[in-house]
Structure formats: C-alpha cells, structure tokens
Amino acid sequence: MRKIGIFGGTFDPIHYGHLRPALEILDALRLDCMYFIPAGRPPHRGAPVASAELRLAMVKAAVREEPRFQVDERELRRAGPSYMVDTLTDLRREFPRDALLLVLGADAFLGLPAWHRWREIFDLAHVVAAHRPGWTLDAGGELADVMRARLAKDARASLSVPAGAVLLQQVTQLEISSTQLRRDAAAGRDLRYLVPEAVRALIRDSDCYR
Questions:
Q1: 3-175 architecture in CATH?
Q2: Is the preceding peptide bond at 13 cis, omega within 30 degrees of 0?
Q3: Average pLDDT along the chain
C-alpha cells in the first residue's frame, strides 16, 4: 500500500506557504508522494486571475526540484466546478488499494461542511488538517461529530487502511497570502523569497497580475 498526499488549490500563485507545509507532511507521515492539483473552476471563490495554463506552469516550476512532488492536471481538464469529491473519486479508481490523504489548512478543514458531498470524502481518503503549533481545533456541529468518530490517535497506524481517518498535523505556517502576492505584483513589488525563483520569473515575464 502506497501513501499518496493530495494538495489542491488555485495556486494563483503557488508560494512557499504551500510548499513548506506539504514537504513537512510528506516527511512526517512518510508519504510516497504528494500530488499538487490546481483547481480549474473553484466552486467556493471567484475565478483565478492567472490563466489555467500559467498556473499549471507555475506549479510545475515550483515542484521541479522535489521528485516526490507531482503535478496532476485533471481538474484543469475537467469541465464544470472543481469539486474535490469528484477528484478523489477519480483517484480512488486509479489507486483502489492505496492510502489517499487530502491535505487541508485549518480554515479549509473547518469549512468542510460547506463542500459539495463533503461526507463522502471520508469514504475516499483520509483528511489531514495542517495547523500551526499550539492551534486548537474549534469544530462544531456535524464536523465535531465526524471528529469524534474519526480522529486518529496514532497517525501512522491509521494509514494502514486506504481512507476514513482525520489526522491533525503540525506544520510551519508561513504567513504568505496569494491575494497579497497578486497585489504586490500588480504594484511592481518584488516577490523574491516569497515564491520559488522559477515562479517569480514566470510572474514577471507574463505580467499576469498587472
């Protein structure tokens, strides 16, 4: 059984605040790989500013030097809203016996009940809530019920099955915002040390956020 991380997002643009937590989770949970999946049409927010082609190019450039990071284009190719439950259904068909781990930031995790067919996600994958040290989970309602039923006491032991657990994983959270990066780029400010150099070059050369 392989252990495959799933990291979705608009990546508009991708930055070190995405990459560092992904690497720490990869190592802490001893995953075989981490799939970065750029969203085509995110259902819970406005349309991305950069084109799908450019966002894909930025993600590929960002992960180029880490062989365990892989890029999956399926949401960019699929018509309609990019629902994670559909993506996980596709991945489960491809990897019927492997453990899939959907990685979410703390805010995204707490917002799960607003997602399309969110309860089905736990039939398809484990869910990893990535949080800063000292963070306290404040889930309520249906999500609190799910937490009580599914929270893993031993993260690694829970990965002996393909799906179903909630894992809490501390990560280094860098206070970098894609929204602010777009504003900075539009104002002509340098994004050096906030994004990988190859991503910085793509943003600069395309002038996509001007």
A1: 3-Layer(aba) Sandwich (3.40)
A2: yes
A3: 95
